[in-house]
Amino acid sequence: MPFQTDDFIDFAKQFVNPDLSSWQSYVETPEFKVYRRTSDRNSSLFEYRIIGGWKDIPARILSHVYLDLAYRKSWDKHMISYKDLGSNTFHYLIKYPWPMSNRDYVYEIQKKEMKSQDGKRMWAILGDSIKDPQILSQVTHEKGVVTIDNYAQRIVIAADGDKGSQVLMDYFDDPKGNIPTAVINWAAKTGVPGFMKSLHQACIKFEKEHPGFEEQSADVIEFEL
User: Which Gene Ontology cellular component annotation is one that this UniProt entry carries (predicted)?
Assistant: First the structure.
């Protein structure tokens, strides 16, 4: 089901005034702080909130690179393949460390350019796992692959001057299978900073290869705080 305009506005407001009262500090890097809390989607697992940014990655570059799956194959070592199912839906296959089985996702993801009443430019990205049988019927799952069917992400990427970006990301997935809690915690504590580092390097490379890149938005959502 497509996301509604209010869904994008609500999370953009979270970016402007984040509420951390229910979150616990988890891990920190020079650029980002990672928080976690018990998830409403599965009380035995955590969801994560990432807050921070880069001074050398423009928001317009970051918001594009994050969703460019064709380019992602060149820099994300965990990505195996993807298929565009149409209407902002995708099948995505990732590599898990041995001896665990690989995982795949079928999800919807949408991006909207937004502008707050004070003129701040930002992009909101919303993604969620799909339960629609008609869409799921388009996907062929490889033997031995575990399908993650409980997944969500919410991201706002805002301009920080002309050359920087600020980020708020909420993320959850249920990896399924009999994975020890210690392994899940280790993966979150090391995997999130590792992914952000790779994403940063990918953005640097993309901007060098596409100087002056500017993605045209069909429409811009303006909202009041």
Answer: cytosol
pLDDT tens track for 119-130: 888 999 999 999
pTM assigned to the model:
0.92
Question: Alpha-carbon distance 97 to 169, whole Å?
Answer: 24
> What band does 225 get if pLDDT is binned at 50, 70 and 90?
low
Domains recognised in the chain with CATH numbers: 5-223 (3.30.530.20)
